[in-house]
Specification:
- This protein has 67 residues and is α+β, with helices and mostly antiparallel strands.
- Helices cover 10% and strands 22% of the residues.
- It has a four-stranded antiparallel beta sheet, with no helix packed on it.
- A hairpin with a 4-residue loop joins strand 2 and strand 3.
Length: 67
Amino acid sequence: TRSIPKKGALSLSGMPPGSTRLAVPFAEKDEAKKLGARWNAERRSWYVSPGINVSLFSRWRTDEADS
């Protein structure tokens, strides 16, 4: 049988599908977190989940989306 991904399922990269990766310097991590960015410890990178206004993170965007 085929399994159906549960709500909030993560992709193989450990981030929700459609997430936007960010390049956040350590000194700015608290600001990014306050805006809604999340840390992926496995990939050691910041990201924004789908549904969050990515324009708030324009200075940290890498223009890479998780598929």
